[in-house]
Amino acid sequence: MGVRFATNPPIDRERLNALFAASWPRHEDRDFGPVLERSLAYLCAFAGGHLIGFVNIAWDGGQHAFLLDPTVHPDFRRRGVGKELVARAASVAREQGVGWLHVDYEPSLDAFYRCCGFRPTSAGLMKLTGQSRGADEGALDG
């Protein structure tokens, strides 16, 4: 079964939530519409009419874009779908004049992202939900 890739195809909430539920154990149903409306672009992978992959390209309106939610259905992993989604996302961003493509990932995905052409960099992260400011102060003051 061949895989078809598409940039900004019409995609409904149910199909995206089904893909995310199959791929991410803690996924909670959500409305992707507001996020996708603000994106530089998003890419989908389909096999036999089924959504099997997705990546969103968020951006700052200038030189920086960010890969968000790169997802491949577990039944289609390790077949090059994720790598192709990332390559196509990079191409779309480049065509739109973006100079830098960023991605955050867990250490276990380092080999995948290096294979896609990313190099590791230092970055910072601040959690804004779920904890009070006071609870975070000690950790941040470290």
List the defining traits of the structure above.
142 residues, alpha+beta, Aminopeptidase, 5-stranded mixed sheet
* Total of DSSP H or I helical runs spanning 4+ residues: 5
Radius of gyration (CA) equals 16 Å
Q: How would a textbook summarize the main sheet? A: 5 strands, mixed
Question: What fraction of the residues are assigned to beta strands by DSSP?
Answer: 15-25%
Which structural class do the helices and strands define? alpha+beta
Could you tell me how far the N terminus lies from the C terminus, measured between alpha carbons in angstroms? 52 Å
State the CATH architecture: 3-Layer(aba) Sandwich
Helix content: 25-40%
The CATH topology turns out to be Aminopeptidase
Topology:
Layout: E1 3-7, H1 13-23, H2 33-37, E2 41-47, E3 50-59, E4 64-72, H3 81-95, E5 100-102, H4 110-115, H5 133-141
Parallel strand pairs: 4-5
Antiparallel strand pairs: 1-2, 2-3, 3-4
Describe the fold and architecture.
There is one protein chain. This protein has one domain (3-141): 3-Layer(aba) Sandwich (Aminopeptidase). Strand 4 (64-72), helix 3 (81-95) and strand 5 (100-102) form a beta-alpha-beta unit. The longest helix has 15 residues, at 81-95. The chain has a five-stranded mixed β-sheet with strand order 1-2-3-4-5. Helix content is 32%, strand content 24%. The protein has 142 residues and is of the alpha+beta class.
How would you briefly describe this protein structure?
This protein is an alpha+beta fold.
